[in-house]
Amino acid sequence: MNIRKLAWRNLLRRKSRSVFTGLGIFLGIATFVAISSITSQMEGAVQDQLDRFGANIVVSPRAEQLSLGFGNIALGGTEVAHSRLTMADKERIASIHHKDRIRAVVPFLITAADASGKNLVWMGLPAEDVAGARPWWKIKGGTEMKRGEVLLGAEAAALLDKGPGGTVTAGKRLYRVAGVLQPTGEKEDGMVIADIADVQALAKRPGAVTFFEVAALCKDCPVEEIVVQIGQALPGARVSAIRQVVESRKAAVDHLRRLGFGVSAIVLLIGGLMVLVTVMGWVQERTREIGVLRAVGFRKRSIFSLLFWETGWVSLFSSLLGAGTGIAAAYLASPVFGIEHPSVVFSPAIFGAVAGLSLGLIGAIPPARRAAALSPTEAIRSL
Amino acid sequence: MEPIIHLKDVSMAYGCNGTRATALAGISFDIRQGEYVVITGESGAGKSTLLTILGGLQVPTGGVVRIGGADLSALPADGLADFRRGTIGFVFQAYNLLPYLTARENVMVPMSPERIPLREKVSRADALLASVGLAGKEDRLPSQLSGGESQRVAIARALVHDPPVLLADEPTGNLDSATGEQILDLFSEWHGRGRTVLMVTHNKGNLARATRSLRLRDGRIEEDRSLRSFPVESVTV
User: Would you call B100 and A10 a contact, using CB atoms and an 8 Å cutoff?
Assistant: First the structure.
């Protein structure tokens, strides 16, 4: 017989009360682990979905703004690029150290050219990348564009009076209109969009690229590092992160995380209070027993230790059970929260088990102190 | 020879909200090692208060209490706990066994905070239970024991550290006379080994076994009577 065993025997004797005490921690930890696990998986899912909405890094040639004038007469300015980007630069971007974080590198060529007798801006990008680079485009007509085909912005289509299935002539070549974009409010409304190879041929600039859009997978986003690495790979290029995109993604994920932590904290707090109230009740009920223990020579520390062991056993089992239940609940509930590939996340469970044990022990401190401070006289009166 | 228990002008008053009740009013006496003292008196005379002070369960509001050379007023809370564990054995009227522990485990409870090998604890508890006539009933719960058997377990628990002083508060109060006699035999046997016994009782029959009687009245010693001589043996405190 030692204090650990004494505590254990007492718990077995008061099974329903022990279960009730553990229930608070069990529910708290199960909720915490389930929410944390789901949140953690949702962060990945949300991030993944956000990453699908376009690029977060733009690579363009480094350029200088030159102002032109003669005497006192200002003739405006012009931009002089120090270097040009080419299709070969795509490989350089894709070979940086953080290449595993790069989801897509999409080259764009912008040029002005004739389209069925109208001078319009042509935007070229790989036909197969249209859906990935501009997922928000709603296209009337065909959903896919192939080489030899074009998409027309809403204004361009109106100007040319063309629709899906029509044709556009440019540089003695005929392009079939694969679809018409619904108005986006952006510049592409007035553009003709075609495969980049077609636009390069039309502009007589084979391999030329105006800029690259890079979509980096940004969970725990090392976007600044990626920017630096691309800059090192392309010394003549200006690489800039689209901060708004990066920050809004971070903000969305942070909101989700905060919500999860907030709910978990409240549930854990309630669990802790339940332990405190229940163990306080134990002490009240066991004044007589504490009196006996004090009379036979238990020190205050021994009484404190006894209460701690009792709560420790309850907290340990409840936490482990809660963590296990939380993992199972998160796994089963994942599809409800749009997580396509549910996985078992152990870190919240480990943290939850430790937190539950700590919470139980912390919740037991006030009643244990009270029990230890109970004067033997006060306790002995009930003997 | 220095007395094992020395009380001088010990007083105890309880009070709250301006009211004050005196339980003990300046009691002084010495008890030598090996005495068997019966404390009698009417209800409210201060018998139980005296016993709790002697047991180090409460500190008097005035006076000096020395037991086995230790000044109880000067001991801190943990010091008093150690004193109780090493010097005093308590036996209560209501047995006060822990209901969820077996007889053996109840006897082992005072040893719980100590780093004693389990085998030794068990062997000590079993030997004590055998000495009070409970061999073979070590694994019974208090609910499976009679009143007399429960009190025997309580006595075994009180003796587990071989204390030089045994304090008993109406130990036969809940027992029939035959069983009460058996319990008193155990006290006499313990006393016969040179230990000091102080017993609060209403039962005049207990006087036959005692060497001295103290009668309290209104917190004072009304009568201090020597009943018979007693053998003095050396007991280490």
Answer: yes
